[in-house]
Structure to design on (199 residues):
């Protein structure tokens, strides 16, 4: 009996997986057979993905929404594709790319065409991510050049900070006591003190 599975991945815990899950349910994947990871695709040490690999058997079927759900690295996507299709004997269907459906063309030509499409798409996906990272880096550099500040603004120092700092520096007060006196964590007190020492 062929088991129909689905795999979903979102990059962070904050991202919503509903779009992928609904797409899988629409093609008949039962909720209990959908494996969901909420973490980056930079490697394959993902608990649900590993569980999926252990469960799938020859002639099972695996649906994924898009090829980059398998991962972000061109070589690794290809490697995982081969493990699933060749080693495990499981069919894969990529919903966003109907050409990537290993149920069709089981002959040599069909397999050959599927492999070529996979390689091209994996390369394009990785190339697009590289371009996005480059555009982000260029955008950040341009913003910094315009004087845009990134990160949270620092809280103003408490009014008693300089007096407490002098007492701590002269050894009259421990760092823990000084931090408590200023109402801040010890690490913050030390960090702000180091900045003060530079001036």
């Amino acid at each position: 009996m062929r088991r129909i599975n689905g795999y979903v991945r979102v990059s962070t815990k904050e991202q919503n997986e509903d779009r992928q899950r609904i797409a899988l349910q629409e093609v008949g994947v039962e909720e209990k057979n959908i494996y969901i990871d909420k973490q980056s695709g930079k490697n394959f040490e993902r608990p649900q993905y590993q569980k999926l690999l252990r469960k799938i058997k020859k002639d099972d079927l695996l649906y994924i929404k898009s090829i980059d759900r398998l991962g972000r690295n061109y070589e690794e996507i290809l490697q995982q594709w081969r493990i699933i299709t060749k080693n495990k004997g499981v069919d894969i269907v990529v919903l966003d790319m109907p050409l990537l459906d290993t149920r069709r063309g089981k002959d040599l030509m069909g397999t050959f065409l599927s492999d070529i499409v996979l390689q091209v798409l994996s390369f394009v996906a990785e190339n697009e991510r590289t371009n996005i990272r480059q555009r982000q880096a260029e955008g950040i550099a341009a913003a910094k050049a315009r004087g845009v500040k990134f990160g949270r603004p620092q809280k103003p120092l408490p009014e008693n900070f300089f007096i407490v700092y002098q007492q701590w520096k002269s050894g009259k007060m421990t760092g823990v006591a000084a931090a408590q006196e200023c109402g801040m964590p010890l690490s913050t007190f030390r960090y702000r003190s180091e900045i003060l020492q530079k001036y």
